[in-house]
Design a protein that fits this description.
The chain is an alpha+beta fold. The protein has helices at residues 2-18, 34-46, 68-77, 86-97, 128-136, 145-149, 174-177, 181-196, 202-218, 228-238, 247-250, 313-318, 398-408; strands at 20-24, 51-55, 61-65, 82-85, 104-108, 114-117, 141-143, 158-161, 222-226, 301-304, 325-327, 336-337, 346-351, 356-364, 367-372. Strands 6, 7, 8, 9, 10, 11, 12, 13, 14 and 15 form a 10-stranded mixed β-sheet that branches. It has a 5-stranded antiparallel β-sheet with strand order 4-1-3-2-5, with helices on both faces. Strand 6, helix 5 and strand 7 (141-143) form a beta-alpha-beta unit. This is Asparagine synthetase B.
Length: 419
């Protein structure tokens, strides 16, 4: 009997000692493809494997339960990795757990099911999130107004809003592009879809879509938006029941004194903003900093804030990177005026010299949202018709890493935040 017990103890000790893990480094020097590394973690979770996100350790490294298929995928996708023993992984975890270290190991439980809100005819390179998900080989479904209004959002844990205009003003492109064939077609298609859905105006359809997305977040969903989908979404919520569209957008004038009728209690992130009344101006409101910026491209950066990894795990996860200083990029909504950001919203990345927030996060009901200013992290001044970004040329992009942090963090088993 004693021999049997000793044998079991030996086998247990041997398995503990020699069972290996896949270690995926994420620092500047140790990882050659940061973007595809997220796809590896997603692949492992999707296949039922256990993983840990090592916050503030080696650039936000990952520890994955060893599996030959994952090893093969690392090799195929060009992701740097190491196979380490259970004993070595335990040493890493013990180092991270030290109270003196601003580090934490967060368990990743389940790959979130992802939806991208986008017109079905948009190409992948029209949107940075769609592009990086495709590059990282993370699966997603494309949904649009019909699916949202039919409550299909309930099938997903994570939602990205494509560069959409939720106010029904067709992206405010009227001044420069109203005679362009693509603009005429976009307007015609939007009107046809609104009619199909039972609305007389596109603005009314977009309002109800915005309300459905709001309810999705309040109910516990995770939402990530970039560029004009950030401020136009909040503007649509604030203008619920108020006509802010001029005749060229919805066939009748806006209602008098609409600015005074906005309800900022209904918004997610922004408050006390002024809407731009001139319909030919390529701007929605005072939220965006694009026209207020006096920064040269070569010196245009924003800084990620540091949070307590042991107590504030969500913002720490969202800021994981191999650099704290990130190259900035522009868009229709480039960044957010700090004066219009609610005090309840957490600023994750900012340019303090210009008083602008670039990357913000907050909670709404049981859910969470993140807004990220700009169009394409590797295309500084993206214009209509510009060629697509080739992510093979930017596999270590810090700006794109922030997007993928948002994709992965809903998989984490999170502790209650302290701040």
């Amino acid at each position: 009997m004693k021999k049997y017990i000793y044998l079991l103890a030996f086998l247990f000790f041997s398995n503990t000692l020699w069972a290996s893990f896949i270690y995926v480094p994420m620092s500047h020097d140790n990882q050659k493809n940061h973007l595809k590394a997220y796809g590896i973690v997603y692949y492992a979770l999707q296949n039922g494997l256990k993983a840990k996100w090592l916050l503030n350790y080696d650039g936000g490294a990952f520890l994955i339960e060893n599996n030959k298929d994952v090893v093969n995928e690392c090799k195929i996708r060009g992701v740097s990795y190491q196979e380490i023993s259970s004993a070595k992984s335990q040493l890493i975890l013990e180092e991270i757990s030290s109270p003196s270290k601003n580090q934490e190991a967060v368990t990743l439980e389940k790959a979130p099911k992802i939806a991208v809100y986008s017109p079905k005819d948009k190409m992948p390179w029209d949107d940075a999130v769609t592009m990086v998900l495709t590059y990282a080989e993370i699966p997603f479904d494309v949904i649009y107004d019909e699916e949202v209004l039919n409550d299909k959002l309930l099938l997903y844990e994570w939602l990205h809003l494509h560069h959409e205009d939720f106010t029904g003003q067709y992206g405010r492109f009227y001044g420069a592009f109203r005679t362009a064939p693509w603009y005429i077609k976009q307007k015609k298609d939007a009107e046809a879809l609104a009619t199909k859905l039972g609305y007389s105006k596109v603005s009314e359809a977009k309002r109800d879509v915005s309300l459905k997305i709001r309810d999705y977040v309040v109910g516990g969903g995770f939402m990530f938006a970039m560029c004009s989908a950030t401020d136009s979404f909040d503007i649509a919520l604030s203008a619920d029941g108020v006509d802010i569209c001029e005749t060229m957008f919805d066939g009748d004038p806006s209602e008098p004194n609409y600015q005074s009728k906005l309800d900022f209690n209904k918004t997610f992130a922004f408050t006390d903003f002024e809407l731009i009344r001139n319909p030919t101006t390529y701007e929605f409101s005072s939220i965006d900093m694009t026209g207020k910026r006096r920064i040269r491209q070569e010196s245009d950066y924003f800084v990620l804030k540091e949070f307590s990894a042991k107590w504030d795990q969500v913002p720490t996860m969202l800021c994981q990177n191999h650099t704290q200083v990130v190259k900035a990029f522009m868009g229709q909504t480039t960044s957010f005026d700090r004066r219009n950001v609610k005090s309840t919203v957490m600023v994750l990345g900012e340019n303090t010299t210009n008083s602008e927030a670039r990357y913000i996060h907050g909670t709404k009901g049981k859910g969470m949202f993140t807004f990220y200013g700009g169009h394409d992290p590797e295309d500084y001044r993206h214009r209509v018709g510009d060629p697509k970004t080739e992510l093979d040329l930017h596999p270590t992009s810090p700006g794109y890493r922030l997007i993928l942090n948002n994709v992965l963090f809903p998989a984490a088993k999170k502790k209650k935040q302290k701040t």
